[in-house]
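Q: What would this chain look like folded?
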Amino acid sequence: MALVEGNVTVFSVCPPFERLNVVPNEKVIYDKKTGTMKKITTSNVLETAWVSKELVFRSEPMDAVLKRIGRKYGVSFEIMDSSLVKDTYTGVFDKEEIEEVIDILKVHYGFDYKIKGNEVQLFATNK
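A: My prediction, written as structure tokens:
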């Protein structure tokens, strides 16, 4: 869980009994195997992006980026040249249509694409 505003104290109810005070931009991770909790610093922008249906990426591998874009828009990606997914992407997509999202990626990574139904083919640009 991640805290957006205010503060909260989180208690574990099983040994080892723990208590963590959490403030905004922190989150608690519970390990089911050990029963322990740990508090880490996080970004509320990333943690709450799902609420506004944004896609937020921070130095994520392109194959993971394409997978999440595919889930949001109900498409699958066919990568015709594996060199196209060897990079990472940082950015936010808010209300763009699938073509706009792919066009933005196209500008950054220099590929071409074709959309056939629910499949998007990405291939290297012939230069």
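The chain has two domains: 8-42, 51-124.
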